[in-house]
From TrEMBL:
Annotated organism of origin: Candidatus Propionivibrio aalborgensis
Keywords associated with the record: Calcium, Hydrolase, Metal-binding, Signal
Region (Disordered): 29-48
SUPFAM superfamilies: Alkaline phosphatase-like
Listed GO MF terms: hydrolase activity; metal ion binding
Biased amino acid composition, Low complexity: 31-45
Protein name: Sulfatase
Record-stated family: Belongs to the sulfatase family.
Amino acid sequence: MIRSRSWSNALLCLSFTAMFVALPAKAQQVTGTPGSPSATTSISGKQLPAPDPKFGGVIKDDALQSKSWWAPRIVPPKGAPNVLLIITDDAGFGVPSTFGGVIPTPTMDRIANEGLRYNRVFSTALCSPTRAALITGRNHHSAGFGVISEQSTGFPGYNSIIGKDKATIGRILLDNGYSTSWFGKNHNTPAFAASQVGPFDQWPTGMGFEYFFGFVGGDANQWQPNLFRNTTQIYPFEGKPGWNLITGMADDAIDYISRIHQTDPSKPIFIKYAPGATHAPHHPTKEWVDKIRAMHLFDDGYNKLRETIFENQKKLGVIAKDSKLTPWPDEVLKPWDQLSAEEKKLFIRQVEVFAAYAAYSDHEIGRVIQAFQDVGKLDNTLVIYINGDNGTSAEGGPLGTPNEVAFFNGLNEIPVDVQMKFYDVWGTEQTYNHMSAGWSWAFDTPFDWFKQNASRLGGINQNMVVSWPARIKDKGGLREQFIHVIDVVPTILEAAGIKAPEMVDGIKQAPIEGTSFAYTFDAKNGKMASKHKTQYFEMMGQWALYDEGWLLSTKVNRAPWQAFGTANPDPLNNQVFQLYDLSKDFSQANDIAAQHPQKVKEMREKFLAEAKKYQVLPLDASVAARLVAPRPNITAGRTEFVYTRPMVGLPQGDSPALLNASYTITADIDVPQGGADGMILTSGGRFAGYGFYLLKGKPVFLWNMVDLERIKWEGAEALAPGRHTVEFDFKYDGLGAGTLAFNNMSGLARPGTGTLKVDGKAVATKTMPKTLPMILQWDESFDIGSDTLTGVNDADYKPPFPLTAKLNKLTIKVDRPQLSPEDIKKFEAAMKKVESARE
């Protein structure tokens, strides 16, 4: 018996080893008795998921004669760290105190003091493109995110679909034994795949993140977000006055850390932590606004702020001592001393709320880091804290705005006297606010320009702090090597001792395009030359190329708030080219293109080669036009939509689009005795949208025009008990939609006439002099039978405002303008001009 058992154990060991025959013996790490429930192993990682092992036990006719066997549990290599990957939103180099800013960021300071500062960390100049690059280790066009999903077009580099051949860091770590999670902003699910129809393979849970708590789109109302747990919508703020997502997601992350640790203390954790701060809307709590206001950081204006930050940066040594501050752009932004007293008052209010949002977010990040310390894991936790997915946003325009949705509809200069009406509620649930671009320019110090500007360091040069107490000993050190967000994935893999997979789900993987910067963790390599040698940048037709210290840039030809109008027809060649030697010119201040024409020519050719290699072509300089370009959502090609039951939560990207079209909405309802109230249909919310509802029994249709005006049709009489047909018919006066093909926006925001009918009889008719051209409030949803989140008219009702009539049927018919023969001729003529320019 003893001999037989020994022979069986030997067979088990052989089977266990055979399971991972491809893994070198020295790399395989096995614990426990092979075949026992407690056995673990690391894997080669070449193929994910790891193939199922052959059964290693013994099977006879009965259980007493047989030997059970369990496959080993897969674990990461011994010593693999926990990973906390933090990325904030719309924050330039000069925002945090860690890099000379005046906004207190003690959490970032702490990580810098316990680890390393990095001053040459690069983004893509826009949010979801940077995030796609961050989680895949590939360039943003390679990952399908040449722009945000809401602007996606039918080209591989721009379709907002991360290919199956580009597994994310979440998926790789998950299959290697990590617990993986994602908190906060997810702007990498296609806008046309964000509904409960799915598919869910492009949601965090489908890309290797076991747990997701956050919002799907580019921004969110932090007081009332369209929030998800995994793929299920949740509303945790209900019944909790003062609830804010910045704290809410920190609470959820802390609970997750505790839950995973208490369940299995040995299992490493990976968290992608992406707060909405400091993307608009800027929504901090009053406590933080009061703290910042009491500090009087901004009383002297944005010109003085820029100078202060610049001097702080020199004192800290986080920029080169000989750095120069480029001139203030008087032609773009009014200097502070030319502003009126009312403008100064408004702008200071705007920036104090922004600063409070940044400080508040940093504080809550600190609570998450402390949670790792509280469970005893911080020593072996790699913390990567990236300040900003691009430079500071200027999408509020020179004056700022109480409603960011207005900017996306072409209203980027709301008069100051109008904005002052929102002064006391700035940053509360009553605003979707953004600050003046003058502050944004200052917060990108020592660089210039903003988010969206891929050719200027103000749009792409971020900063970062990294700590890993068990490994990084050069505490407080500064690293100046060139690093791009695509370098984060290979760095995490090297730190964990995990190789990038060759196959995932049977699909051969595209090579990782980033370069690990783990070599910078060692003090002896602190001054080592950058291993990442060449990097292209491109965003909406503005582009640059970095090549071993040299930077070729296209001159900025569009401010971020100039999203409408005719775009550059030939963004590859129709450019003014600038050249910089960043090894001698830290802040991109000295254009030397005239002295080096051959270098300019050489780098232009190299950019084109990189563009071809990474799916950057075809270049497209359009901005707003891409927001309304056709894309394959679930409504594509449909002109009629029928609903027979209440339903809420359908996102804007998957719901019937009524903008720039004629439409008819017909509701068949039964009104009970005593009358009825409530929402029949709504899309959008407080900051832009429409609602079709019964108010004190009377039918109402209302358009909320970016919270500046509300256009209302209302019946004179309440509906009597019984069955009724209530209809809103809108006739749009717009031109052919085909004009969008070459960025002529004349087919948008045209007038139209709406008629409200009851049982076929018109009860109200009104003409809209203009309509919304681009978007509704895109963090709100399309709801039938009630209204989630915010309402389109606070004066009439408060959500959820359920419909008390019985809904039998709701029908929406959309009649979109067609391309006319004249449109086709205009389009062909425009294309000929483009071709001639290229030739």
